[in-house]
Amino acid sequence: MPADLTSLPVEYLFTMRADTSGFLLIPEGPTGTRLLVTVTGGAVKGPRVNGTLHEGGGDWVTMRSDGTGQLDVRVTIETDDGAVILMTYSGVLGADMVVRCAPLFQAGHENYRWLNNVQAIAIGHPTRSDVTYDVYAVL
User: Fold this and answer.
1) pLDDT tens-digit profile of 71-82?
2) Domain residue ranges in the chain
3) CB within 8 A of 32, min separation 6: which ones?
4) N or C: lower Cβ tally within 10 Å for the chain?
5) Model-level pTM greater than 0.85?
6) Over 90: is that where the pLDDT of 84 sits?
7) DSSP 3-state assignment of 123?
Protein backbone atom coordinates (compact mmCIF):
# COMPACT_ATOMS: atom_id res chain seq x y z
CA MET A 1 0.00 0.00 0.00
CA PRO A 2 1.36 3.43 -0.87
CA ALA A 3 2.48 5.35 2.21
CA ASP A 4 0.70 8.53 1.02
CA LEU A 5 -2.74 6.94 0.51
CA THR A 6 -5.14 8.99 2.63
CA SER A 7 -8.38 8.74 0.66
CA LEU A 8 -10.31 6.34 -1.54
CA PRO A 9 -11.17 7.61 -5.04
CA VAL A 10 -14.93 7.27 -5.62
CA GLU A 11 -17.65 8.53 -7.94
CA TYR A 12 -21.09 9.42 -6.55
CA LEU A 13 -23.71 7.28 -8.32
CA PHE A 14 -27.01 7.90 -6.54
CA THR A 15 -28.93 8.27 -3.31
CA MET A 16 -31.36 5.46 -2.51
CA ARG A 17 -34.26 5.62 -0.07
CA ALA A 18 -35.66 2.20 0.78
CA ASP A 19 -39.07 2.26 2.47
CA THR A 20 -39.50 -0.52 5.01
CA SER A 21 -42.44 -2.04 6.82
CA GLY A 22 -42.00 -3.91 10.04
CA PHE A 23 -39.85 -6.95 10.58
CA LEU A 24 -39.98 -10.59 11.50
CA LEU A 25 -37.83 -11.55 14.48
CA ILE A 26 -36.12 -14.93 14.87
CA PRO A 27 -34.52 -14.73 18.33
CA GLU A 28 -31.42 -16.51 19.58
CA GLY A 29 -30.54 -18.59 16.52
CA PRO A 30 -27.20 -20.37 16.25
CA THR A 31 -25.53 -17.31 14.65
CA GLY A 32 -27.50 -14.64 16.54
CA THR A 33 -30.91 -13.04 16.42
CA ARG A 34 -32.25 -12.55 12.90
CA LEU A 35 -34.41 -9.63 11.75
CA LEU A 36 -36.12 -9.96 8.39
CA VAL A 37 -36.93 -6.44 7.15
CA THR A 38 -39.17 -6.06 4.07
CA VAL A 39 -38.60 -3.31 1.49
CA THR A 40 -41.96 -1.89 0.37
CA GLY A 41 -40.71 0.59 -2.24
CA GLY A 42 -38.50 3.62 -2.47
CA ALA A 43 -36.58 5.85 -4.84
CA VAL A 44 -33.16 6.08 -6.48
CA LYS A 45 -31.93 9.50 -7.62
CA GLY A 46 -28.54 10.56 -8.91
CA PRO A 47 -26.37 11.52 -11.85
CA ARG A 48 -25.99 7.91 -13.11
CA VAL A 49 -29.14 6.02 -12.02
CA ASN A 50 -32.73 7.17 -11.39
CA GLY A 51 -35.78 5.05 -10.67
CA THR A 52 -37.83 3.27 -8.03
CA LEU A 53 -37.35 0.26 -5.78
CA HIS A 54 -39.69 -2.68 -6.28
CA GLU A 55 -41.64 -3.97 -3.32
CA GLY A 56 -40.45 -7.33 -2.05
CA GLY A 57 -36.76 -6.82 -1.50
CA GLY A 58 -35.40 -7.10 1.96
CA ASP A 59 -32.66 -7.29 4.52
CA TRP A 60 -31.81 -10.43 6.46
CA VAL A 61 -30.00 -8.84 9.41
CA THR A 62 -28.03 -10.94 11.89
CA MET A 63 -27.70 -9.18 15.25
CA ARG A 64 -24.27 -10.10 16.58
CA SER A 65 -23.31 -10.51 20.23
CA ASP A 66 -21.36 -7.22 20.14
CA GLY A 67 -24.54 -5.27 19.33
CA THR A 68 -23.78 -4.68 15.64
CA GLY A 69 -25.93 -5.92 12.79
CA GLN A 70 -24.57 -7.86 9.82
CA LEU A 71 -26.58 -7.07 6.67
CA ASP A 72 -27.60 -9.32 3.77
CA VAL A 73 -29.73 -7.20 1.40
CA ARG A 74 -31.36 -7.72 -1.99
CA VAL A 75 -33.37 -5.03 -3.80
CA THR A 76 -34.43 -4.41 -7.39
CA ILE A 77 -34.30 -1.01 -9.02
CA GLU A 78 -36.51 -0.17 -11.98
CA THR A 79 -34.93 2.77 -13.77
CA ASP A 80 -36.90 5.63 -15.25
CA ASP A 81 -36.13 4.21 -18.74
CA GLY A 82 -37.47 0.73 -17.88
CA ALA A 83 -34.35 -1.27 -16.99
CA VAL A 84 -34.37 -3.61 -13.99
CA ILE A 85 -31.20 -3.82 -11.88
CA LEU A 86 -30.52 -6.22 -9.02
CA MET A 87 -28.56 -4.62 -6.18
CA THR A 88 -27.16 -6.87 -3.45
CA TYR A 89 -24.98 -5.92 -0.55
CA SER A 90 -23.56 -6.97 2.74
CA GLY A 91 -22.35 -4.66 5.43
CA VAL A 92 -22.52 -3.64 9.04
CA LEU A 93 -25.04 -1.62 11.04
CA GLY A 94 -22.81 -0.14 13.73
CA ALA A 95 -23.65 0.76 17.29
CA ASP A 96 -23.66 4.37 15.99
CA MET A 97 -26.71 3.44 13.82
CA VAL A 98 -24.75 4.07 10.59
CA VAL A 99 -24.79 1.42 7.86
CA ARG A 100 -21.55 0.79 5.97
CA CYS A 101 -21.91 -1.61 3.05
CA ALA A 102 -20.53 -2.83 -0.28
CA PRO A 103 -23.17 -3.07 -3.06
CA LEU A 104 -22.83 -5.11 -6.24
CA PHE A 105 -25.12 -4.92 -9.27
CA GLN A 106 -26.52 -7.19 -11.97
CA ALA A 107 -27.87 -5.44 -15.06
CA GLY A 108 -28.69 -6.74 -18.52
CA HIS A 109 -29.94 -3.51 -20.11
CA GLU A 110 -27.33 -1.95 -22.37
CA ASN A 111 -27.56 1.43 -20.61
CA TYR A 112 -26.59 -0.12 -17.26
CA ARG A 113 -24.24 -3.02 -18.06
CA TRP A 114 -21.37 -0.83 -16.83
CA LEU A 115 -22.74 -1.43 -13.31
CA ASN A 116 -21.78 -5.12 -13.60
CA ASN A 117 -18.14 -4.04 -13.28
CA VAL A 118 -18.64 -1.70 -10.32
CA GLN A 119 -17.70 -2.36 -6.74
CA ALA A 120 -19.69 0.21 -4.80
CA ILE A 121 -19.56 1.43 -1.25
CA ALA A 122 -22.45 3.07 0.55
CA ILE A 123 -23.21 4.85 3.79
CA GLY A 124 -26.75 4.52 5.13
CA HIS A 125 -28.89 6.06 7.84
CA PRO A 126 -31.94 4.07 9.01
CA THR A 127 -35.14 5.37 10.59
CA ARG A 128 -38.18 3.41 11.76
CA SER A 129 -39.76 3.54 8.27
CA ASP A 130 -36.86 3.73 5.81
CA VAL A 131 -33.13 3.78 5.24
CA THR A 132 -31.31 6.25 3.00
CA TYR A 133 -27.96 5.44 1.38
CA ASP A 134 -25.45 7.49 -0.57
CA VAL A 135 -23.90 5.07 -3.08
CA TYR A 136 -20.45 5.50 -4.66
CA ALA A 137 -18.44 3.54 -7.24
CA VAL A 138 -14.88 2.78 -6.17
CA LEU A 139 -12.58 3.98 -8.96
Assistant:
1) 999 999 999 999
2) 10-138
3) 62, 63, 64, 65, 70
4) N
5) yes
6) yes
7) strand
